[in-house]
Specification:
The complex is a heterodimer of chains A (386) and B (380).
Chain A (H helix, E strand, L loop, with lengths): L12 H34 L15 H11 L10 H19 L16 H9 L2 H11 L3 H34 L11 H7 L5 H4 L1 H14 L11 H4 L9 H25 L14 H25 L5 H28 L4 H24 L4 H7 L8
Helix pairs in contact in A: 1-2, 1-11, 1-12, 2-11, 3-4, 3-5, 3-11, 5-6, 6-9, 6-13, 9-13, 9-14, 11-12, 13-14
Chain B lengths: L5 H9 L5 E5 L11 E7 L2 E8 L7 H6 L7 H4 L7 H16 L5 H30 L4 H21 L8 E2 L2 E2 L7 H24 L2 H7 L7 H6 L5 H4 L7 H4 L20 H25 L19 E8 L4 E8 L7 E5 L1 H6 L2 H5 L4 H11 L3 H5 L1
Antiparallel strand pairs in B: 1-2, 2-3, 4-5, 6-7, 7-8
Helix pairs in contact in B: 4-5, 5-6, 5-7, 5-12, 5-15, 6-7, 7-12
The chains are: A mainly alpha (386), B mainly alpha (380).
């Protein structure tokens, strides 16, 4: 296995790095533009609409038209905004996402840099995302933005914990497996290569569920879109932004959605290695990663169109009372199984039981709906008269 | 145990938090029109709420005083603009009671049918907008819009207009139903029933929705009566008060239907009562179709200009939001001396402060949504 061993075309290392960064940024922009288009189309279908159809064939250049419109719009700064905080907030949110994309392996040799502590790097960098959002919330001089910023801070700080623990569960397994150097690793490429025969979602369904839930929360996607709740605080921390700065936030949102999806598919779904193997052609590997990440994104859209929004205290209690204990249980089970060298099937079994328990907890909390009988009684005329 | 130094304690004492006021509306996606409320919040908790209304005041009552009885029709279906026909119904009943005007039976059946379709219209808009308040990203709204379009299409076939048909007249209706209306209505009812099932699956079947709405701002029967609430709001508390049963008007005594009531008067019950009511409305429309007599739809003895001698009356109808009452007063001539609207949304809205205080901002939005106000009716 050759991991990023050769620079492109034998160029000097730094030129090679620049070329790779530019490639990733360009592809990110393209993906973001078509994600916005894709989201509008997919959501429209869920809602029995058509979505964009006018600009270009099937509305295909709608995203580009929107981007152009946003760039040419006036950049407004409220009078009572904190100038520098307000103006730098979009960059402070965007840079961590960009830095995360630098570490992701899109195929065996397709990424900017292959880091030995790749997984650690990714979630450490993503923790910085909150700084920009808080800056936007505090610097806008707007009460809705302030509420949004504070909500975002509370939410992201809480959900980091189950998220990191669910990733730790995976790290425990990779620690038990041996890579080519005979040691466990946090290297994302090596983690992917371990999953050549079976992706980690098979071994760790519970950790995957926790990861996905916490990821939705980190991305402010429904049902955790509390910091940007349209019907409550009118867009939260982004309410005062317009033009290019607002589009920076939008870019960040979709880029991080893509980045998280690639990261999730690398860690849990076998990235480029499963099911075509580590020796497949690079185009197949790249295609596998992209398809998996878009499946992830599709799932996010699906959840978004279907479920309402949680309240902030329900969100917190769900995190601290359900997700955190479940992730700790998963870690404990992994510890026992790995330390005593029990078979890996046991990992899959216990984790699947845990996942079933998690789903059962969520459903049980709302299953007591006595009033639902009300409608059942009144659907026909045979109901007792009041 | 930590011993706090003196100066540290002083900073703790001086760390006073200040309540913040947030202005919600008149341009806010969750206020359903041009309603404004100023929330005083302590963090996320609402400690005070002050509603401001009047942004949509169009002087309905004064305009009615200055127009011929029939000319005012157009103002009245713009009060509850989500259910125009139900408002026309109440106004026409008031004029008929003032002038002792008889209405043909066929017209009464068509009126009830149209009023119940309007109720369905209004309730569908409630489901959609309420879902959006709870945060279902427009899906519920678009579902509601689909059914609403179907009802509006039928209104267009019947009366030539969608939102403000001005179809009723004192003494009957503007014109008869078009030929072959019955299969149209039956098809419409089928699709509406399917639409209700969709909402049942999308919202009532959703864990988060139930979790958000259950036990939120429960209200007792007594308190609801004291606040002058009516309609689904009071029925959610468990009081079976429906003017169609309590003080029957038009041909409602001939029809069989039930009054759904809730238990706790919480937001979830308000939603469910409306949902059950929508099913009942479908049943009422079906019975109207079955029982529809023939004959004229407009009293043929009416003069060209309606002149009403002295008199006064109060007409109560079960509007889509509650008791939609019209107080009329005539002193001769072709114009009413006074026409007063008792609007249910306005009375229900007066309970807002009591319901909202002590809840989170996100819940305040939901509670406002559960009131199902229409600003055209509040501001008149």
């Amino acid at each position: 296995m050759m991991l990023f061993a050769d620079a492109l075309f034998g160029l000097p290392n730094w030129i090679d790095a620049i070329i790779r960064v530019v490639l990733v940024i360009l592809s990110m922009t393209l993906v973001v533009i078509y994600l916005t288009y894709g989201e509008r189309k997919v959501v429209a279908r869920f809602q029995q609409r058509l979505g964009p159809t006018e600009t270009g064939p099937a509305g295909l250049i709608q995203g580009i038209a929107d981007a152009l419109k946003l760039v040419t719009k006036e950049d407004i700064r409220p009078k009572n905004a904190d100038r520098w905080v307000f103006e730098f907030a979009p960059y402070a949110t965007f840079i961590p996402v960009l830095m995360m994309l630098m570490a992701l392996p899109f195929a065996e040799d397709w990424g900017v840099r292959d880091l030995a502590l790749g997984m650690f790097y990714v979630f450490a960098i993503l923790g910085l995302n909150i700084v920009g959002i808080l800056m936007a919330g505090l610097g806008s001089g707007n009460k809705y933005a302030l509420l949004g910023g504070i909500r975002a801070a509370a939410q992201m700080v809480s959900y980091e914990i189950p998220l990191v623990i669910s990733l730790l569960c995976v790290a425990m397994i990779t620690g038990a497996e041996k890579d080519m150097n005979g040691t466990g690793t946090l290297n994302l490429n090596a983690i992917t290569a371990f999953q050549e025969t079976r992706p980690y979602i098979v071994l760790q369904p519970l950790a995957f569920l926790i990861f996905f839930t916490a990821m939705l929360s980190e991305l402010h996607r429904a049902p955790f879109d509390i910091p940007v709740a349209e019907s409550e605080i009118v867009g939260g921390c982004f309410v005062e932004y317009s033009g290019i700065r607002w589009s920076m936030f939008q870019l960040t949102e979709y880029a991080s959605m893509w980045g998280w999806s690639v990261f999730g598919s690398v860690v849990f779904l076998g990235g480029w290695a499963w099911p075509f193997g580590v020796d497949a052609h690079w185009s197949i590997q790249l295609g596998t990663t992209l398809v998996k990440s878009f499946l992830f994104i599709m799932l996010i859209f699906w959840v978004r169109t279907t479920v309402p929004r949680l309240r902030i205290d329900q969100l917190m209690s769900f995190c601290w009372k359900v997700l955190l204990p479940m992730s700790l249980v998963q870690m404990l089970m992994n510890g026992f199984i790995l330390v005593y060298d029990w078979p890996q099937e046991l990992l899959a079994l216990t984790s699947a039981l845990g996942a079933a328990a998690l789903v059962a907890i969520i459903i049980r909390r709302a299953m007591r709906r006595p009033s639902r009988d009300l409608v059942g009684t009144y659907k026909t005329l045979g109901a007792p008269a009041q | 145990m930590t011993v706090w130094p003196e100066e540290r304690l002083a900073t703790v004492d001086s760390f006073n938090t200040v309540d913040m006021t947030i202005n919600v509306g008149p341009q806010h996606p969750a206020t359903h029109g041009v309603f404004r409320m100023v929330l005083t919040v302590d963090g996320e908790l609402v400690v005070d709420c002050e509603p401001y209304i009047g942004y949509l005041h169009r002087g309905l009552e004064k305009l009615t005083e200055n127009h011929d009885y029939r000319q005012s029709m157009g103002w009245w279906d713009r009060t509850d603009y989500l259910a125009g026909m139900a408002c026309e119904f109440a106004y026409c009943m008031a004029v008929e009671k003032l002038g002792n005007i008889q209405v043909p039976e066929r017209a009464e059946y068509i009126r009830v049918m149209m009023a119940e379709l309007s109720r369905l219209l209004s309730h569908f808009m409630f489901f959609g907008a309420f879902g959006a308040d709870v945060g279902s990203f427009g899906t519920s709204f678009v579902y509601a819009w689909r059914e609403r379009e179907r009802i509006y299409d039928f209104f267009e076939v019947v009366a030539g207009d969608r939102m403000f048909p001005t179809y009723f007249r004192p003494g009957g209706l503007q014109m008869d139903l078009p030929e072959g209306y019955e299969p149209l209505v039956r098809q419409l009812l089928g699709s509406l029933e399917q639409g209700l099932e969709d909402f049942d699956g999308l919202l009532t079947g959703n864990e988060i929705f139930v979790e958000r709405c259950r036990n939120l701002s429960p209200m007792s029967k007594e308190r609801a009566i004291n606040l002058g609430m009516s309609g689904p709001m009071i029925r959610a508390t468990g009081l079976a008060h429906d003017i169609r049963k309590a003080e029957p008007y038009s041909i409602y005594p001939n029809l069989k239907f039930n009054i759904p009531v809730g238990k706790n008067g919480d937001v979830f019950d308000r939603f469910m009562v409306r949902m059950a009511e929508a099913y009942q409305s479908i049943q009422i429309v079906k019975q109207c179709l079955d029982l529809m007599p023939g004959g004229l739809v407009l009293n043929p003895d009416l003069p060209k200009t309606l002149r009403i001698e002295e008199g006064e009356c109060y007409v109560r109808t079960e509007g889509t939001k509650g008791e939609y009452g019209v107080y009329g007063m005539a002193r001769g001539g072709n114009k009413p001396y006074r026409m007063k609207l008792r609007s249910p949304s306005f009375c229900n809205l007066s309970a807002l402060k009591e319901m909202v205080v002590g809840h989170y901002v996100a819940d305040a939005i939901i509670i406002l949504g559960s009131l199902d106000i229409v600003l055209g009716e509040v501001d008149k």
